[in-house]
Amino acid sequence: MIDDAKIAELKAKHGELFAIELDEDEIVVFRRPTRLEFRAYKSNSQDESKRAVADEILCKSVVVYPEGDACEALLDKLPAASLTLAKAIVEKSGGTQASAKKL
Asked: Do residues 29 and 19 lie in contact, with contact meaning Cβ atoms separated by under 8 Å?
């Protein structure tokens, strides 16, 4: 579990953050990808055979908690977590359907 002090530390370092609960007490905190990170992800994720790798690279780029080896251990424990995380990351980066108004 992540405490308030760690959240404050991460926000000071990374700015706006988002959290998702994956498995009971497995909390993952991420930032939005940069434009360059997102373009690389989009380019690599178009090929379905490379999609899982692209999802994992995106996650490793923007996940700020857990860090390093702990993040690797989480992905080893929950191998499909990168799919769920990538979807949430894209959604929080503006990748949702926009509602346009009729003029």
From this structure: yes
pLDDT (mean) for 2-13: 94
Nearest to 29 by CA among 50, 48, 14: 14
Q: What CA dihedral angle connects 88, 97, 95 and 80, to 10 degrees?
A: 30
DSSP string, 38-96: HHHHHHHHTSGGGHHHHHHHHHHHHEEES-HHHHHHHHHHSTTHHHHHHHHHHHHTT-S
Instruction: Please give the Cα distance from 2 to 14 (Å, whole number).
Output: 16
> What tens digit of pLDDT does each residue of 16-41 get?
999 999 887 889 999 999 999 999 99
57's tokens = 């690279």
Domains defined for the chain, CATH in brackets: 4-92 (3.30.2220.10)
- pTM to 2 decimal places: 0.87
